[in-house]
Amino acid sequence: MASPPDGSDVQHLPSAKPYLLRGMVQWMEDNGLTPQILVDATLDGVSVPQEHVKAGKIVLNIAQRATTRRDLANEYVSFGARFGGVAREVWVPMLAVLAVYARENGQGMTFPTEETDTPPSAPEPPPPERPKLRVVK
C-alpha cells in the first residue's frame, strides 16, 4: 500500500464513524426522514434515560426537530430532548453509537461494535518450523 502524498501514516487517521454519521443524518433530513441512532447504553460515559433502555440498548431520535442543542461531534453525540414529557440531556460517546437509520424505511448503516484509538498490534510471528532431516547417501 502506498503512503499518502503528505507522508502521514494512514493508521493514525481518526475514525470515519462521526463523518459517516453526520453524512447519513444530513441525507435523511434532506429527504424528510427521521434519523435514529442505536446506542450501547452499557458503555462508560453514556448518559441516557435508563428507564428507556432495553437489553442494554436504546434507540434515540436525533432529528433536528426533535432535539435542542444537537451536537454531532467527532467524539460524542449530545442533545436535549423530551422523554415522556420530561426534558433530559443526552450524552453518547461516539464509541457507543452502534447504528444510524431512518425510522420510516430502516435505511442506514451499522458501525463496528469495537473500535480503538491505537493501531492494531503486529501479528505474532509463526512458530519456527521443525527441522526437516533426510538421509543422504
UniProtKB/TrEMBL annotation:
It comes from the Bacteria. GO terms for cellular component: cytosol; ribosome. GO terms for biological process: positive regulation of protein catabolic process. This is ClpXP protease specificity-enhancing factor. It holds the Pfam family SspB. InterPro entries: SspB (IPR007481), SspB-like_sf (IPR036760). Residues 108-137 are annotated as: Disordered. It comes from Immundisolibacter cernigliae. Residues 127-137 have a biased composition (Basic and acidic residues). Coiled coil: none annotated.
